């Protein structure tokens, strides 16, 4: 038996994934799990492949606040292969008030970003999917080599910009791309928040209707009985999320 066959498949796992039970399942499947603090993604496998794991709830929340697209942008920037795994029950999706928002975002991942989305019902199936991806992302000889762990160092300015983009992208109908345009146009989040409807509407991709939604979200006081999802459901539609 060759040394490659004796070796165990190696997978680098983000430290924050320890409590998910997926790493333990990977070990049970015979993988050699190595922990590290990853700046991008949750799992790295050989073949320059980065995997982001999301529960259904986290997926939905990350679509509304645009974290999903910011994370995918970073994955594509640093890795040649990127995959999103969605773990959970379909009942969580069926209970959504506006499932078209979810499917529009997933369509954007598939068509515009060309990032595949893999669905799994449990942590054990997630582990099985990661092992399968690890083997398919590399040749038979490469499958048992050390995964490519990149040192992605972000400057203080880079971290600040990421925080600012995350804040801006949480506005109704504003995804990572429009957030970047707004920041370039106005220079800072506070300038965006203070901008008039007319000034916001002049930014490419915003328009008057979307500018009104932004100003409404910033200017309107709501009682505690309303949740973040109530506001976003009223003023975010599938086209907004996709085009953002």
Describe the structure.
- There is one protein chain.
- This protein has helices at residues 3-6, 22-28, 56-64, 67-78, 90-94, 99-113, 123-136, 156-169, 176-186, 189-194, 197-201, 207-219, 228-235, 238-243; strands spanning 10-14, 32-36, 43-45, 49-55, 81-87, 117-120.
- With 244 residues, the protein is α/β, with parallel strands linked by helices.
- The protein has a six-stranded mixed sheet with strand order 2-1-3-4-5-6, with helices on both faces.
- The longest helix has 15 residues, at 99-113.
- The model is unreliable at 1-6, 224-229 and 234-243 (pLDDT under 50).
The mean pLDDT is 80
What summary fits the major beta sheet? 6 strands, mixed
Radius of gyration: 20 Å
- For the record, the CATH architecture of the largest domain stands as 3-Layer(aba) Sandwich
Quickly name the level 1 CATH class of the largest domain. Alpha Beta
Short summary of the structure?
Helices cover 53% and strands 13% of the residues. With 244 residues, it is of the alpha/beta class.
Task: Summarize the topology.
Elements: H1 3-6, E1 10-14, H2 22-28, E2 32-36, E3 43-45, E4 49-55, H3 56-64, H4 67-78, E5 81-87, H5 90-94, H6 99-113, E6 117-120, H7 123-136, H8 156-169, H9 176-186, H10 189-194, H11 197-201, H12 207-219, H13 228-235, H14 238-243
Parallel strand pairs: 1-2, 4-5, 5-6
Antiparallel strand pairs: 1-3, 3-4
Helix pairs in contact: 2-7, 8-9
